[in-house]
Amino acid sequence: MADRRDLSGRRTSLHEKRERKVLSLYEKLKILDLLNGGMSCAEVGRRVGKNESSIRSIKQKQAEIRQSLCAAPTMAKRVSVVRDKVLVKAEKALSLWIEDMSQKHVPVDSRMIREKALSLYEHFGTMTETPERKAFMASKGWLASFVNRYNLKNLRVTGEAASADQESASTFPHEFRILVGRKGYLPEQVYNCDETALFWKKMPRRTYIHKDARQAMGFKAFKDRLNACFVRQCGWAYD
């Protein structure tokens, strides 16, 4: 970039430098908490409005920053945040609900969590008299903060493994033909049937669980379905 000198002889760039904002100790600690919560440097940078290199620098100086916190005056460490009492109750109940769904092997995605949060907030709001209560929207930003506060993680649901016995299937026609001939069955006594099902309630492929749980094992879809059995008898089909 080309430089120029002003009237006083001071060298300046053609483009004025942007004013540099110095992060406070509390802001750096908040960034470290986000990183320790599982967010990447790029994600934290987008969230706090800083470039990725600055976030990496803060991460590398984590020990120094936390030592500075211990050495800082008491008043400098104290941060008061007044949270919505109704929201605090709703979040605690929501955490218990997620744990209950996990124990019941029912996966829950972000949409289900946000809908449940709105329902719980409305429920506790009618029971608690709070003047000038702010509207709660259960936004994506709130969800990210809730996941960090309650140490949740998002995992892919592991389903049941299904495998067909190819060897038995290949030998069955020959063995069945021998059985029919030996028993003397008539063609009208031979049926071929198969069952199929339409699972109309689609379940999410990912779920939220607490971080102390290593993996989401054994989740099964709801059995809400429509069954159909197709039967064939010597060329005749029946529904």
Automatic annotation (TrEMBL):
GO CC terms in record: nucleus
GO molecular function: DNA binding
A Pfam family that the UniProt record links to this protein: CENP-B_N
Oxidoreductase in keyword set: no
Cellular compartments annotated: Nucleus
InterPro entries: CenT-Element_Derived, Homeodomain-like_sf, HTH_CenpB_DNA-bd_dom, HTH_Psq, WH-like_DNA-bd_sf
Keyword tags: DNA-binding, Nucleus
UniProt key word Nucleus: yes
PROSITE patterns: HTH_CENPB (PS51253)
Start and end residues of each HTH CENPB-type domain: 78-156
Protein name: HTH CENPB-type domain-containing protein
Protein's organism: Trichuris suis (pig whipworm)
